[in-house]
Amino acid sequence: MDELKFRKITLAVSIGMLVISLTQKCYCTSNHCGDSIAVFIFGGMVIFYGGAALCWLANPCLIFAWLFIKNNKLSLILSATSFLISLSFLMFSSIIDNEGGQYKNIISYAPGYWLWLLSTLSLFIGNIIIRTKYNSPSNQYV
Q1: Residue 74 belongs to what domain range?
Q2: pLDDT at 121
Q3: Which residues does the chain have with pLDDT short of 50?
Q4: N or C: which end of the chain has fewer CB within 10 A?
Q5: Please, is 58 exposed, middle or buried when counting C-beta atoms within 10 Å of its C-beta (0-12, 13-18, 19+)?
Q6: Cα(25)–Cα(28) distance, rounded to whole angstroms?
Q7: What is the tally of structural domains in the chain?
């Protein structure tokens, strides 16, 4: 398989997993389970609260990694950052649960979270493979 085809497959898998994740619940508190699409769209509004809300920053990193997929070094750095940030969500025990800024304990992680994590991981692994297997001269100096 040539490099261009592998890049397209890597990109399609990552985007596909994210799109599917947006149709699922992402985490559950004692009150309810969060809708992934709502967290994806509105999560950026609460990043200033800190804590688990900072994990939303994995989304812009992921999107920029997609946009810069032709620049393997930059896409690799962005996808690694996105993966590590999304993985760090597991370190938090509570999250803002409503518009009033109340925190609730996270009691479980739903399929939307795991698919989001896999979306970032698949792009990261794809970029590693591109870097090692298809290490073209144009990527060496970028």
Answers
A1: 3-140
A2: 98
A3: 139, 141-142
A4: N
A5: buried
A6: 8
A7: 1
131 in Cβ contact with 19 (< 8 Å): no
Q: What is the pLDDT of residues 63-73, one digit of tens each?
A: 999 999 999 99
| Torsion angle (degrees, nearest 10) of CA 99, 104, 110, 115 | 60
Residue 113 is given by DSSP the state H
Q: Which pLDDT does position 97 carry in this prediction? A: 79
Pair 70, 7: CB distance under 8 Å: yes
* Backbone dihedral angles phi then psi of residue 7, each to the nearest 5 degrees: -60, -45
Please name which of 125, 128, 126, 120 lies closest in space to residue 18, comparing C-alpha atoms.
Answer: 120
What distance in Å separates the CA atoms of residue 61 and residue 94, rounded to the nearest whole number? 23
Q: How far apart are the C-alpha atoms of 1 and 7, rounded to whole Å?
A: 10
Token pair 């073209």 is found at 136
Q: How far is CA 63 from CA 3, 30, 68, 75, in A?
A: 20, 31, 9, 10
Write down the pLDDT at residue 138.
Answer: 52
Q: How confident is the model at residue 48, as a pLDDT?
A: 81
Cross-sheet strand order for the sheet of 94-96:
33-35, 25-29, 103-109, 94-96
Q: What is the DSSP letter of 74?
A: H
